[in-house]
Write a structure and sequence with these properties.
Blueprint lengths: L1 E7 L5 H10 L3 E4 L6 H10 L6 E5 L9 H12 L5 E6 L2 H11 L12 H11 L1 H6 L2 E4 L5 H12 L9 E8 L10 E4 L10 H4 L6 H8 L2 H24 L3 E8 L5 H15 L3 E6 L6
Parallel strand pairs: 1-3, 1-4, 2-3, 4-5, 6-8, 6-9, 7-8
């Protein structure tokens, strides 16, 4: 079981971190009272695999000292519930700018404390939990995508490729480009089964059309080149923090060549370990 505790400075990105962990399949709880953490850990251990991966946020909202949190962590240690602490921070000037942009109040300014003073006070108060953290992530120069990449590296493990799903979609150019496409491959350059009367009313899902398409060396070479590009590109998309990638494969009408090639690419991407779906937008059009 992976039990992750996220803490850190207000405005540094704890909520974004929790969202990323949720995308990775973690059961997430925000601002769980520290007194309930041992009971929560016990529940998770007793109900595996339902709660195989869990994450929670604890921060200054729970109080100005962390004695209760440390007692809770000691309770987790006593029951043999392993955990990792991720501490999220950023430079003071960055945090101040973020609060100004969002117009949200820092939790320590409610008593009239100046914003800079509140940020520095919180940093000092959180120093004990920072010192105990397994991982410290400075988000001063991290985009949300880069933060996601950091957490994927830490917690996706052998399931790293599952952090991004890939949708391969065939389509017909005569009906327009798919609006959500990230990558578009044009297979109109391949020999067209439409001009063979015995294949015209079949689709790329059927063996005769597929066999015709891949009987040509240029089709086999084209797909091999695309697969080489995808082998290089897909891990970089994961590293960048992308959660969903749409690959569109187009021919004239979306019945023959694009369908056959999309199916081939979908099988290849699935073999790479990515969660993959294959769809055919225009295959039913007249």
């Amino acid at each position: 079981m992976q039990f992750v505790i996220v803490s850190g400075l207000s405005g540094a990105g704890k909520s974004q971190a929790l969202n990323v962990l949720e995308d990775l399949g973690f059961y997430c709880v925000d601002n769980l009272p520290e007194e309930l953490i041992p009971q929560f850990g016990q529940l998770c251990m007793a109900t595996k695999p339902r709660f195989e991966n869990v994450a929670l946020v604890t921060d200054i909202r729970g109080g100005l000292t962390f004695d209760g949190l440390f007692r809770a962590l000691d309770g987790l240690d006593a029951m043999g519930c392993g955990y990792s602490i991720v501490f999220v921070e950023a430079a003071s000037e960055v945090l101040i700018q973020r609060f100004k942009e969002t117009r949200r109040k820092h939790p320590l300014t409610r008593d009239g404390t100046d914003l800079l003073e509140a940020v520095e006070r919180e940093r000092k108060l959180l120093e004990p939990i920072r010192n105990r953290a397994n991982f410290v992530i400075d988000t001063s120069n991290l985009s949300t995508a880069k933060l996601r990449g950091e957490l994927v590296n830490l917690f996706a493990g052998g399931q790293r490729d599952h952090a991004m799903s890939v949708n391969v979609l065939s389509f017909g150019f005569k009906y327009g480009l798919p609006m959500d496409a990230d990558l578009v491959f044009d297979v109109r350059l391949l020999p067209n089964p439409y001009y063979l009367p015995e294949l015209r009313h079949h689709t790329g899902l059927e063996a005769p059309v597929r066999d015709f398409v891949f009987s040509h060396q240029q089709a086999r070479d084209y797909v091999a080149k695309v697969e080489e590009l995808l082998s290089f590109s897909l891990p970089l998309y994961v590293e960048e923090g992308k959660t969903n990638l749409v690959i569109a494969v187009g021919c004239t009408g979306g019945h023959h060549r694009s369908v056959a090639v999309a199916r081939e690419l979908g099988d290849f991407i699935a073999r790479l370990g990515f969660v993959t779906t294959v769809g055919h937008r225009d295959i039913s059009r007249a």
